[in-house]
Automatic annotation (TrEMBL):
The name this protein goes by in its record: TetR/AcrR family transcriptional regulator
Superkingdom of this protein's organism: Bacteria
Keyword entries, A-Z: DNA-binding
Residue ranges the UniProt entry marks as DNA-binding: 39-58
Database matches in Pfam families: TetR_N
Positions of the HTH tetR-type domain: 16-76
Gene3D superfamilies assigned: Tetracycline Repressor, domain 2
Length: 204
């Protein structure tokens, strides 16, 4: 009985490994050939498996793979964000720390390029998962702004400012995905923007 459970455990581990190999191969192909050049055939070849095996794990083909990849990268970003916020007591600095987490992820070519590309063809595919991180970012930043803005700034006003800040972060992420060396200058610029909104200097 114990041996059967052990074999099942090994089988499940092999399934998880194969699934991850498919996802990794997709990012590599996407990074090299872009959205138009990515195909199940190329992914299967790079992963060293058959095309049929890809469909066993992802019945809807590229659509399933893209959704899982986007959700996985979003989860990584939110985890990193939670960690940096926990270590940052100042609300203005927390906002910048969130941007830094996003730009660090964006600077990793295989993650950043995929996470930043929302072509007209790809957007409908990602509808169930796209925007999850942005919504959480807006909520968190609006909460931070409540600590630094005057009492006259109501919830809708804080949310509007948070949405604009998140929009800037996403654009900065797109820039960094193409030119990683821009990361530090963009963070400096964001510190100045957040500092101006908060009415305080955010340390460089």
């Amino acid at each position: 009985m114990a041996k059967a459970a052990e074999r099942l455990s090994l089988r499940e581990r092999n399934k998880l490994r194969t699934r991850q190999e498919i996802l990794n191969a997709t990012l590599d192909v996407f990074n090299e050939d872009g959205f138009p050049g990515t195909s199940v055939d190329k992914i299967a070849e790079l992963a060293g498996i058959s095309k049929g095996t890809v469909y066993v794990y992802f019945p809807d083909g590229l659509n399933d793979i893209y959704r899982e990849l986007y959700a996985d990268i979003t989860e990584r970003l939110l985890k990193a964000t939670k960690e940096v916020r926990a270590k940052t007591p100042n609300p203005a600095q927390r906002i910048v720390a969130m941007a830094d987490a996003l730009l660090k992820l964006s600077a990793v070519p295989t993650y950043g390029r995929f996470y930043s590309v929302l072509s007209p063809e790809l957007r409908p595919v990602l509808t169930p998962v796209v925007g999850m991180a942005s919504k959480q970012f807006v909520t968190l930043i609006a909460t931070d702004l409540a600590e630094v803005l005057s009492e006259t700034a109501d919830g809708e006003h804080r949310t509007s400012i948070a949405e604009l800040i998140v929009g800037s972060m996403r654009e900065a992420g797109r820039i960094v995905s193409e030119t990683p060396h821009r990361k530090e200058s963009l963070i400096v610029a964001l510190k100045r923007i957040v500092g101006a909104i908060a009415g305080e200097d955010v340390p460089e």
